[in-house]
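Before relying on records like the one below, remember that each one covers exactly one chain. Contacts with other chains, cofactors or solvent are not represented anywhere in the record.
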Amino acid sequence: MKAWIPPAAVGLVAFVLGLWAGHWGSGPASSPSGENRAVSSGPAPAARAGGKPLPPAFGAMFSSSDAVPRSTADLASCLAAAMDNPDYFERAGELWWLTKHGITRENARGVLDQLRKNSQQLEDRWAVGTVLRAWARLSPREAMAYAEQLPNDPTRQQNILNTLNGWASGDYTAAEAWVRALPEGELKRNARATLIAAVAETNPEQALDLALAMKTTRRGMDPAYAIFSRFAQRDPAAAAERAANLPPGQMRNSALSVVASHWAMTDRNAALEWAQSLPDRRARQQVMANVVQSWSQQDFDGAFEWLQKQPPGRERSELVRSMTYGAMNQSPENAVALIELTTSTRDQDNLLQSLANSWARQDREGAKKWVDAQEDPAVRKTVLQGYINGLASEDPEAAATLVLDLPPGDAQRNAVMNIASDWAEADPAAAAKWAGRLPAGEARDYAYSNIARTWAETDVATAAKWALQLPEGQGRANALGGIADRWSESDPAAAARWAANLPPGEARDDVLGNISGNWAEADPEAAARWASQLTGTAQQRATTNVLSRWVDADPAAAGAWASQLPEGPTRVQGLSSLMSNWVRQDASTALEWFSRQPASKDRDEIVGDFVYSLGQNQPELALQWAGSISDQNRRNNQLQNLAANWLRRDPDRARAWVTNSSLPPKVKDSLLSAKP
């Protein structure tokens, strides 16, 4: 099927298509042994295995626009077929050519309807975005109206953004006005980045000014790729200097990576020399990884030989990881060769699992032969898990027949969860029946949660009915929680009304807590008012979740609300959550606010909770506050724990403090005599 690669490795069309993320499996736990294991390279994968046959006219497409099909059905068929091309650049070019020469005001809606009707895989729906972008250049408001009414699946927001990109390319002023009218939230943040990307296509200098002024990189999409790919195409050395002079942060890191990838395509020696000269270790390592990965895509043997000559250590290991991920989609055999250079078993396991996942998506039969060729039991277990995870996205029913071959534990549980999510996207009722036949235990409980959450995206009423008929226990609680979590992201008030009618108990309390957290992301004041109407444990959990989210957006407002709560467990837990989160953001402001709060019998408990967070970065200040705890035993225990942690991180300063502290002599002796 499709082979997805990270956006830094491709052209500006990545933004257009919305192919932002790779499908990598979750990393397994490391094996006890640190020794490298023998990994068989296995048979070679088939090229474009399982893809749809291209229409006869497709081969002539790049030579003449007349070759583009004129009928709605044929054009939609060609777009769907293009999505099966495993080569990213070819796939992007095919989609661009088809939409540029084939989409008109008159046929766009029909092509989209046909394309969506025939889409069998979620990934196929990304082609919808390219059609919407082309349509938006011709008739932006019609295209946007169509995009906004799309089902709320994982592709919807990106399709809206693709439409906006096309709109902004033709009428920036109108597109910007549409973005300004959006409510604050993730879509608006990402829409701003989309506007910047559209400007960058013709004026990267203006786009950079907009990006710095809007500060879009704190949360949401990062527009650095769209901007600096243009800079680097014109003058990579100047682009490198400009990127290095950006303020520290996400945009600077992304800009350096973009420049590195582009420069390596035209002059890898100059790019390497520049990368190695960067003073910051993290930036240097990331830029080196981009240079070497770009080099390996053009000349794998040369890059591999250079890598082998590098001294073993942390920097080479990071380069090996980066190159391996880059090679997985192009040549699994090259990825195997790179994995054999790893010296860490944990790194090797993570890479092997990701490779098996990627390979299964590209060539199921070739990947299975490679899995079966592994003679080392630990390696086979790792790659089997990755293979099952990759297979789950294409054929979850087939993956389900293999999952119980894994031994019970983390690997099996993670594989079951992936199958549950992927199967539920296509057929939630079938996925639910399969999960019900699994052996009772943690894996089944997590499967219920994933199925419920995915099912709730399309049919929350049926999902809720299914969850309520499950037998009492953790699986039922997980299913209810998954539904509440997903429902409250789109309509927290409706989710709250549903949850209020659930049978009383711990599961209901957990559900109410989940709803409160998501509600507070969108409207913390409304979530707080709702939490105040609850009682008992449900109120405590909801209050804590509201404050933990509210403090990120407006700590002063969150504090004002928390301080007026009546004394008792809810107020204590709420203030503890507030302070623990606030001191991580801005300790001085948080502590100044807390010092103005009236004394209460619960103060010791609240201080005891937040000084742990404070102790991670400001141990002396944490110790000072811990010393204000009135209960002597609690105070000494807190001081002892903080001092012990500090001794491990900064023994000289910590020992000086312990020596001069008011701790009991026995506690001092114990701390000072402990081995580092």
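The radius of gyration is 28 Å.
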